[in-house]
Prior knowledge:
CATH topology of the domain at 103-195: SH3 type barrels
Strand content: 15-25%
Shape: extended
Amino acid sequence: MATKPRKSHLVRQDVERFRSGTDARSWAEYRQAQYKRALIGIQPDLFGAPVVEVFRPSPKMTAPETGTPEYEVEMFHGLPPEKQALRLAADPQTPFARTTRGSLTEAEKAALIVSAANWLRVGQPVRIAGAPLTLDGDAGRRVGHTGVVWRLCRPAFADHAYVNLDLIGAERSEKVVFVELCDVEPIEAAAFRAARPR
């Protein structure tokens, strides 16, 4: 039984049209590298139809190492009804969960930004090492994923960055996520290339 060629969102990038050293050039180079890595071959059509590009599928994501977060989480629905009633009486806008992970102070943010200055740049390979508590749990599922720094933030959010996650499994569209720098760790570029499936 013949298999249909796999379609991909990856397209060739015209890297040369962007000025060297710009973010747009870095993004185009990254997308072009992804395209080349995924491309298996090009199949021309004998009767003039468009050529068919055949791509290898994205690698499966290995389950991230399970670890205990360094903060505690108290779920509202896990409390007995009496405590729930007391919480709601005290604060009608009671959150669905409380966590001991506090926000960073201004001094801690400044120290974090200074410590990341030697590696934080567009195109830097990174791994998501932690995540805050979120309503849908989406941030927690990203722990262990790798990607590259896609965009740096303005001074108001200098302790955050945008990370373009590597595609896994059947994913077809780019996933650019907004993460705190304290949840991201840099990966050496050589180790990053060696660890990525071909």
